[in-house]
Amino acid sequence: MARQGAKSDEKKNWSKHVTEHSFTLSLEPSVFTWDDPRKKAESLKRSAEESTFRKTTPFQSAMSMLNFYINRTGKKLKPERKRILEQAKDELRRLYGKLKGKKKSKNE
Predict the structure, then answer these.
(1) 1 — pLDDT class (breaks 50, 70, 90)
(2) Is residue 4 pLDDT above 80, yes or no?
(3) DSSP secondary structure code for residue 98 in this structure
(4) Short-list 33, 27, 32, CA closest to 45
(5) DSSP H helical segments within the chain, as ranges?
(6) Which residues touch 82 (CB under 8 Å, ≥6 apart)?
(7) What is the dihedral sign for C-alpha 51, 53, 57, 60?
(8) Please, what is the average pLDDT of the chain?
(9) Other C-beta atoms within 10 Å of 43: how many?
(10) Which sign, positive or negative, has the C-alpha torsion 29, 36, 68, 72?
(11) How many CA atoms lie within 13 A of 92 on its CB side?
(12) CB distance 44 to 27 below 8 Å
């Protein structure tokens, strides 16, 4: 007989399961702990472009992985770490030429 708390444990650790067992990007070890937002963004970009599992563009895959990590850590994420991760998002946008708030006109 399964223990009673098994289902709640599965629900509680769903993101860990997704990270370890799904066909996600192959990330460099400890990429989310790095302090350099540009280095972090470049690593995510490389991983997304090398991935054979992605179903969207490399930019969307890299940004999704970054957002997934931010959302997964939730309130436990220290303000300084969150600031670095948000800067990494901006770096990703720069690397892919998708600057936030600026749409290219047809004449550019």
Answers:
(1) very low
(2) no
(3) -
(4) 27
(5) 6-12, 14-21, 37-50, 58-73, 79-95
(6) 70
(7) negative
(8) 80
(9) 19
(10) positive
(11) 26
(12) yes
Structure tokens at 73: 């850590």
Tens digit of each residue's pLDDT (9 = 90 or more) over 69-107: 899 888 899 999 999 999 999 999 999 999 766 555 445
Block residue for tokens 């220290």: 78
pLDDT of amino acid 55: 83
Place of tokens 């948000």: 86
For the record, the structure tokens of 102 come out as 């600026």
Single-letter amino acid code for the residue at 60: Q
- Which amino acid appears at position 85 of this protein? L
Give the angle subtended at the CA of 77 by the CAs of 32 and 21, to the nearest 5°.
50
Chain centroid to CA 29: 13
pTM attached to this predicted model: 0.71
Lookup: tokens for 64: 């999704």
Which residue reads 């290219």 in tokens? 104
